[in-house]
Amino acid sequence: MARGQHLDLIRQAVAKMGLTEDGSCGGGACAPGVLVKRGGDEDDVRPSFVQYIHDGNQFRPVGPIELVKILQPFAYRIEAFSGTPVFIKVRPRTDELYEFRNSAMTAVMEEIDQFWELKPNFDKLGLLHHRGILVYGPPGTGKSAMMQQVAERMVRQGNVLFFAHGLGGLLAGLQAFRDVEPNRKAVIVLEDLDEYLQWSERDLLQLLDGENSVDNVLFLASTNYIQKFPPRLLRPGRFDRKVFLNYPPVEGRRTYLQHKLKDVETAEAIEELVGKTDGMSFGHLRELVIAAYAFKEPVEKVLRRLKDSGTRLPERPGQLMVSEGCVRFEGQERVRHPRRAQGYSQGPESPPRPMGLADEGVADTVARLMEEE
User: Fold this and answer.
1) Does the pTM exceed 0.70?
2) Following DSSP, what letter does each residue of 9-64 receive, concatenated?
3) CA 61/CA 58 separation, integer angstroms
4) Angle formed by the axes of helices 201-209 and 167-180, to 10°?
5) Cβ atoms < 10 Å from Cβ of 261
6) Count of beta carbons in the 10 Å neighbourhood of residue 256
7) Which letter, b or e, does each residue of 68-78 get, where b requires 16 or more Cβ atoms within 10 Å of its Cβ?
8) Which of 140, 154, 165, 175 is the most exposed place for a label (fewest CB within 10 A)?
């Protein structure tokens, strides 16, 4: 390989590690060595080591390091490098978050707080202090926002939260975390759980209640497709509580629109929008605010577009029924569950699907869009 190509590969690796060629950390996590710059016809970079880590019969050169006894209160992503777990700080970026009373979101937050207080009861009964909560419902109903609220609350209380990046690294990281901090509270976030189900179901089951289970942990997962799950995943001991999150009621829409529009709309206009957005998700409310108040589109035109694109509040699916080989909602036809989730096409066991552009003819679509203009 030519020297120039070799240097290009090194620089690409440096960029991926979040380091700059002058040895500084470019906003990311630093590698064990510090990079320095050497003069010459072509700039060269190399790790600068100052000491060794003595581990059994191995000596590994490292740069300046600091040993700490506990992780800082923060949200982390766990990855494995050469079999060694690494905890990487993350700060998920979302829009401003709002809570409103009497919501499923508030109920979940209260249950999580109660769970941490009950550890003495679990210990007295000889049980692992361990619980799983699965939040399910249509897209755009606030599941990701709930995850973020839990993360912020955990950090404020001095605890840690782990976002799953891959189950292999997560399994190794949790065991290492418990070795170093045996009694620290931790929440494990498994967003879009159905993605893990397709590729790593065995690892997932081991994580939840297998030989790799750890104490003093709460699993918080979300999905839009609970009907695709095998019953073995939903049984108590893995996910003890399943919470349906529907499109926001009037209180939720009012809270969201008041916070977003309080400086640009009158109270009367906001209340009118609350009534006109019945059946819309938080995602649709966000698009309404962006399109009408950032892009300055006419409000009525935006509302018409959102409603025509399939914004309709479905009936609550009913009681979730979990039995051998089947996950369905009460009153729906019993359908045998496939061995693994295979796509997300609408099946007879799914909740009512909102009508959308795909449900109308091409000519009707073009005519309607021309009318909107």
Assistant:
1) no
2) HHHHHHHHTTB-TTS-B-SSPPPSSEEEEE-SSS-EEEEE--EEEEETTEEEEE-S
3) 10
4) 20
5) 18
6) 24
7) eeebeebbbbb
8) 175
Give Cβ neighbours of residue 78 (< 8 Å, ≥ 6 apart).
85, 86, 87, 88, 162, 164, 165, 169, 170, 172, 173, 174
- pLDDT for 151: 86
**CB-based contact 75:160 (threshold 8 Å):** yes
Distant-in-sequence, close-in-space partners of 73: CB < 8 Å, separation ≥ 6: 154, 155, 156, 157, 158, 159, 160
Instruction: Compute the distance between CA of residue 96 and CA of residue 222 in angstroms, rounded to an integer.
Output: 20
Give me 142's structure tokens. 């606030």
At 321 the pLDDT is 56
Whether the predicted pLDDT of 142 surpasses 80:
yes
Residue 250's H or E segment, with its range, is: helix 250-261
Count each helix (H run) and each strand (E run) in the chain, helices first. 13, 13
Predicted confidence (pLDDT) per residue in 15-55, tens digit: 554 444 444 444 444 444 333 343 444 444 555 788 888 87
Domains of the chain as residue ranges with CATH: 3-67 (no CATH), 104-244 (3.40.50.300), 250-313 (no CATH)
Give me the residues paired with residue 48 across strands: 34
Amino acid at residue number 73:
P
Dihedral, CA of residue 221, residue 222, residue 228 and residue 233, to nearest 10: 10
| C-beta of residue 334 within 8 angstroms of C-beta of residue 294 | no
